[in-house]
Design goal:
two-stranded antiparallel ribbon, single chain, 46% helix, mainly alpha
Length: 97
């Protein structure tokens, strides 16, 4: 399992997520590639070929996947002591004067 698919608070991410960081349009292909351990370029080529062959069903499936699949949560990948430091403060702590 790659480090990008691991959440330090809840463990491994389960299910399919849209990966906006590695995606081009909405991240559906990047999320599918990560979940099923495919190469991203392979999933994109299959999506483009199916878009040319079956335009309306592919476009409808892509838009439905965009609407139904949640976006991948951000994962902190730095050192653990920095993570603990930033999590120790409340969200509005820095706004107080």
């Amino acid at each position: 399992m790659s480090r990008d698919s691991w959440d330090t608070d809840f463990g491994a991410l389960h299910g399919v997520y849209r990966d906006r960081e590695n995606g081009w349009v909405f991240g559906v292909c990047a999320g599918i590639a990560e979940r099923f351990n495919f190469r991203l370029s392979t999933v994109r080529v299959i999506a483009v070929i199916s878009l040319f062959l079956f335009f309306w069903p592919t476009a409808a499936a892509y838009l439905a996947a965009t609407a139904l699949i949640r976006e991948k949560p951000l994962v902190y990948s730095g050192r653990s002591n920095e993570n603990d430091f930033w999590r120790s403060y409340r969200r509005d702590h820095w706004r107080r004067s």
